[in-house]
């Protein structure tokens, strides 16, 4: 994170340490590049990186003795220029304590870096509480050996503490704080559940936009809904979920939800803390999966998102793939999968129009055709059909004194309206 010095903003200088274990060279380089991007998102600069190939990370010091000496030599020759060491794996309490003792510097891991970025991004009360909860759960087993560094309520990466809670407080105080946050979150989640139940009762079709962080989800969301959610070329630009109405047809509205981006090795503390965000995905009737095909590791990112969806319990939900940022490619792109898809640049208006048409056709192809007959006293039901189904025609049958409405509706609504599909005046 940037730190003020006089009137200037000084970026923290970071030394990276990464161990390659079972992953391929390509996967390892992708992970290292991602760690660098995370550091940049936290407004820091990577000045040096130390990497090592090992069958397993060292249980006590993460890296082996030889690499420890390399890091020590670098720190000695660049005294005062490195502010923080970031490791590319989640470290155990013992590893953090040992590395801190050896290097006499602040040590954080990939998880703590992501938590810091989430703390920067959280805007709503719920988001802030979720981040605070994840931070406290992460810190609880790591209090010992970190008091000297974590007691400073400064602005550096890893020091953006959760609220007013002092991180050197005893475990009982931390556990009490976790309990208090859980109670507050339970109340917020209960309110969200009531909102979700209301949407169900009103028959809204819900679509969640998911994808790897920085794939272009918020940009697509804003273009479709004219929303003003934050969008920038940064990891985790969106943290708090946002839901807006989108007209699939001139009258038929659906609900679109922009969600937090996924990332490789997403910390389990965050997955658990952001359960309400993830529940928006679980409740969705359809999923829009946005993929940045300009990224050389897009296939791995696509696989990561699909794996996380599976882990959080998403089953049998139709997925439409959006292969984004095709304008940055130098060669033709041909996806190898069975899902319906569109290749586009969200920033291109022609591409966006084509996507909207393709997506509309796909959605309607999954609906059931219907023909419903209503009397003039059933205006409320007619309005519901206009709002929650794709009405194609409304015709008044004078001989029967009934309105004939034809169109397409989601399969889950078919039984509800089936009794109105007979030509008998209600």
Care to describe what's here?
The protein has 426 residues and is of the alpha/beta class. Helix content is 40%, strand content 21%. The protein is built from 14 helices and 14 strands. The chain has helices spanning 25-41, 65-77, 93-103, 110-121, 125-139, 147-150, 171-201, 217-225, 268-273, 275-282, 298-311, 349-365, 379-388, 414-417, and strands spanning 2-5, 8-20, 44-53, 84-87, 107-109, 206-211, 242-247, 253-258, 286-292, 319-324, 341-343, 368-374, 390-397, 402-409. The strands form three sheets. It has a six-stranded mixed sheet with strand order 7-8-6-9-10-11, with helices on both faces. Strands 1, 2, 3, 4 and 5 form a five-stranded mixed sheet that branches. Strands 12-14-13 form a three-stranded antiparallel sheet, covered by helices on one side. The chain starts with a strand and ends in a 9-residue tail after the last helix.
Task: Name some characteristics of this structure.
426 residues; alpha/beta; five-stranded mixed beta sheet; single chain; 21% strand; six-stranded mixed beta sheet
Question: How helix-rich are the residues, as a percent range?
Answer: 40-55%
Shape designation: elongated
Strand content is: 15-25%
The run of helices and strands is: EEHEHEHEHHHHEHEEHHEHEEHEHEEH
Strand order of the largest sheet: 7-8-6-9-10-11
Radius of gyration: 26 Å
Unreliable stretches: 4-8, 145-153, 163-168
> Structural class, judged by helices and strands?
alpha/beta
Q: How many extended strands?
A: 14
Largest sheet: 6 strands, mixed
- Mean pLDDT comes to 84
């Amino acid at each position: 994170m940037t730190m003020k010095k006089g009137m200037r903003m000084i970026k923290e200088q970071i030394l990276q340490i990464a161990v390659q274990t079972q992953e391929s060279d390509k996967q390892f380089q992708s992970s290292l590049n991602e760690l660098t991007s995370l550091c940049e998102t936290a407004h820091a600069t990577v000045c040096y990186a130390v990497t090592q190939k090992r069958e397993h990370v060292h249980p006590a010091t993460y890296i082996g003795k030889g690499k420890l000496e390399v890091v020590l030599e670098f720190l000695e020759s660049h005294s005062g220029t490195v502010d923080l060491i970031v490791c590319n794996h989640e470290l155990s309490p013992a590893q953090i304590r040992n590395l801190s003792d050896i290097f006499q510097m602040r040590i954080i891991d990939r998880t703590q870096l992501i938590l810091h970025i989430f703390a920067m991004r959280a805007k709503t009360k719920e988001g802030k509480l979720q981040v605070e909860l994840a931070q406290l759960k992460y810190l609880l087993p790591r209090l010992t050996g970190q008091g000297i560094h974590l007691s400073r309520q400064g602005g550096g990466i890893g020091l953006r503490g959760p609220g007013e809670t002092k991180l050197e407080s005893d475990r009982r105080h931390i556990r009490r704080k976790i309990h208090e946050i859980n109670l507050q979150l339970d109340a917020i989640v209960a309110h969200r559940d009531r909102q979700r139940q209301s949407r169900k009762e009103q028959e809204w079709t819900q679509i969640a936009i998911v994808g790897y962080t920085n794939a272009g989800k918020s940009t697509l969301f804003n273009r479709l809904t004219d929303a003003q959610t934050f969008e920038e070329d940064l990891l985790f630009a969106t943290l708090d979920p946002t839901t807006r109405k989108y007209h699939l047809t001139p009258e038929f509205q659906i609900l679109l939800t922009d969600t937090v981006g996924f990332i490789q090795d997403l910390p389990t503390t965050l997955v658990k803390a952001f359960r309400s965000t993830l529940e928006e995905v679980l409740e969705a009737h359809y999923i829009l999966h946005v993929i940045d095909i300009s990224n050389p590791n897009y296939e791995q990112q696509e696989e990561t998102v699909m794996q996380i969806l599976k882990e959080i319990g998403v089953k049998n939900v139709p997925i439409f793939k959006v292969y984004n940022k095709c304008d940055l490619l130098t060669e033709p792109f041909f996806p190898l999968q069975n899902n319906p898809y569109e290749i586009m640049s969200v920033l291109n208006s022609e591409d966006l129009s084509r996507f909207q048409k393709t997506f509309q056709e796909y959605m309607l192809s999954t609906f059931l055709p219907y023909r419903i007959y209503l009397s003039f006293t059933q205006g409320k039901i007619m309005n519901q059909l206009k709002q929650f189904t794709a009405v194609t025609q409304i015709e008044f049958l004078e001989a029967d004194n009934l309105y004939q409405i034809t169109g397409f509706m989601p399969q889950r609504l078919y039984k509800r309206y089936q009794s109105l599909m007979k030509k008998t005046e209600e």
